[in-house]
Amino acid sequence: MKKFWEDVYLTAAPETDQINPTRDNQPEPSNLEQFLHPPGFFSQHQTSAARDEYQEYIKAPPVPCDNPLEWWGARRTEFPILSQMALDVLSIPLMSAECERVFSAAKILVSDRRSSLSEQVIEASMVLRYWLKAAGII
Questions:
Q1: What percent of the chain has pLDDT over 90?
Q2: pLDDT per residue over 64-110, tens digit each?
């Protein structure tokens, strides 16, 4: 997790000057520009990243927690970037629907009569089925 934090979140805080340069004598920013670059948003994250929230969190004593999503949501002001990372990671579904479809299709393929198929034949059949579906043939 530490490497993920350092590679993706710690270094992801953009420079304030690059995102929101001074706008002297410039027209009012569009709604899209305001949405993509809200005033003061990146400077707050840059300050947070400079203090390395991950190290602060690791040094803190463990606290029991029943619901991690609520816990991180309640600590957004204390750890703005780290809480975003935690919410991003915790919101990943445990299993995707595509994976479940593949197992269901394999179950249909390997019936009682076909139980002696080798794993290479099953794999080839499943890959071929996927390719044919992707091409719109079946």
A1: 4
A2: 889 988 999 898 999 898 988 888 888 877 766 777 777 888 888 88
C-beta atoms surrounding 10 within 10 Å: 20
Tokens of 60: 């803190």
- For 91-126, what is the HEC assignment? CCCCCCHHHHHHHHHHHHHCCCCCCCCCHHHHHHHH
Q: Which pTM does this prediction carry?
A: 0.45
Percent helix, strand and coil across the chain, each to the nearest 5:
60, 0, 40
d(CA 68, CA 133): 39
